[in-house]
Amino acid sequence: MDCKKYETEILDLIDAPSGPNGAPLADHAAARHIAGCPECLTELNGMRATFAAMSDWTAPEISPWFDGKLAARLREAQQAQPEGFFARLRSRFLFTSNLQLRPIMAGAMAIMLAVGGGGYASFVHLHPSVQASATVQDLQLLDTDATALQQIDQLVDDNSTDDGNDSAS
Ligand SMILES: [Zn+2]
């Protein structure tokens, strides 16, 4: 069977014109195969249903307390951060020559700016009734990535060393 061969083309046919049973009307090899192959046709219609369900899906309402709690956490985190930490991290990010690290730094900055150094973890633990969103779960995964955090710490340390050298020379 040619099913394997046309597997990747099924995606392209999701929005293409189709007959009453969902068979693609286009006139090329992939469309002809799928129109005449019950398995591929089932696959195509299944994908259509999945995409339709996804576009109908709306995010669930979050707890009415979420915004207030998050704002409080952000204030706490801002007060807890040493002066100039973000400024130093930001300049390191903007002027670093290590292009590979840029996305990591950008992500790390976004996380730290958003949650203030792990405050979200205690937030989630304090409020187990609040369903952790996928984003929060991602953040928790990142939080446990000690290596990445260590690298960022080293960068910040490097930065303060650079500053020292600059002012000395
Ligand atoms: Zn097939």
What is the secondary structure topology, with strand pairs?
Elements: H1 3-6, H2 29-36, H3 38-56, H4 66-80, H5 85-95, H6 101-115, H7 119-126, H8 134-143, H9 146-168
This protein binds zinc ion.
What does this structure look like?
α5 (85-95) packs antiparallel against α6 (101-115) and α5 packs across α9. The N and C termini lie far apart (73 Å). It contains nine helices and no strands. The chain folds into two domains: 3-56, no CATH class; 66-168, no CATH class. It has 169 residues and is an all-alpha fold. Helix content is 67%, strand content 0%. The chain is elongated. Zinc ion binds next to α3. This is Transmembrane anti-sigma factor. It comes from Terriglobus saanensis (strain ATCC BAA-1853 / DSM 23119 / SP1PR4). InterPro entries: Anti_sigma_zinc_sf.
- DSSP helix count? 9
Mean residue pLDDT: 72
Report low-confidence residues grouped into runs of 5 or more: 117-129, 163-169
Share of helical residues: 55-70%
Radius of gyration in whole Å, from Cα?
25 Å
| Ligands and ions found | zinc ion
Order of helices and strands: HHHHHHHHH
What is the number of E strands?
A: 0
Termini separation: 73 Å
**Envelope shape:** elongated
Number of domains: 2
Question: Structural class of the helix and strand makeup?
Answer: mainly alpha
Our estimate of the beta-strand percent is under 5%
Largest sheet at a glance? none
InterPro entries: Anti_sigma_zinc_sf
Protein name: Transmembrane anti-sigma factor
Organism: Terriglobus saanensis (strain ATCC BAA-1853 / DSM 23119 / SP1PR4)
